[in-house]
Amino acid sequence: MFLCPIYRAMDFLVELFHNLLEHPDWTMSQACTDSYNKTLKRWHGWLASSSFTVALKLAPERKKFMEVIGSTGDLNADMAKFCTTFATLLAEIHKFLVSLCFSFVDYEWLSHLYKMNCSSKQASCGLDDMKAS
């Protein structure tokens, strides 16, 4: 489902900005790593996780990042507003995905079905069972 990667990326950004607000002493690397571990890591295999670790080495210094994203206005207030607004939006997207039977636990199960090359009849029966529970 196309919304899952977008949802996860937005979740990562909200967590990253939250970390930057709550932990002014953290480096960008610390904030990104904590955000990644809380949001994206469980969805990534070894290759994606390793790629994140390599990409993290290219992250700018915190001061430079903050300068680039907020050249005018009150950056902390803007980040707090972003976190509040998008957290609400993410909750709505999550409700929508669950209504389609794509809760994140179920998504793992569906991925397992795909890997097992189940027939559409077997997958349909499994989805019906999930909807009933």
Outline of the structure:
By secondary structure, the chain is an all-alpha fold.
Write the layout of secondary structure elements.
Elements: H1 3-22, H2 28-39, H3 46-56, H4 62-69, H5 75-99, H6 104-115, H7 120-132
Helix pairs in contact: 1-2, 1-5
Please, could you describe this protein's structure?
- With 133 residues, this protein is mostly helical.
- It folds into two domains: 3-100, Glycolipid transfer protein (Glycolipid transfer protein, GLTP), CATH 1.10.3520.10; 101-133.
- Helices cover 76% and strands 0% of the residues.
- Helix 1 (3-22) packs across helix 2 (28-39).
- The radius of gyration is 18 Å and the shape is flat.
- The two termini are 21 Å apart.
- The model is unreliable at 109-133 (pLDDT under 50).
The helix-strand sequence is HHHHHHH
Structural class: mainly alpha
Largest sheet: none
Could you give me the name of the CATH homologous superfamily of the largest domain?
Answer: Glycolipid transfer protein
Mean pLDDT: 77
Envelope shape = flat
Low-confidence stretches: 109-133
Summed up, the helix count is 7
Oligomer: single chain
Helix content: over 70%
The termini sit apart by 21 Å
| Number of domains as seen in the coordinates | 2
Determine Rg (CA atoms, Å): 18 Å
InterPro entries: GLTP_sf (IPR036497), Glycolipid_transfer_prot_dom (IPR014830)
Organism: Apostasia shenzhenica
Protein name: Glycolipid transfer protein domain-containing protein
GO molecular function, one term: ceramide 1-phosphate binding
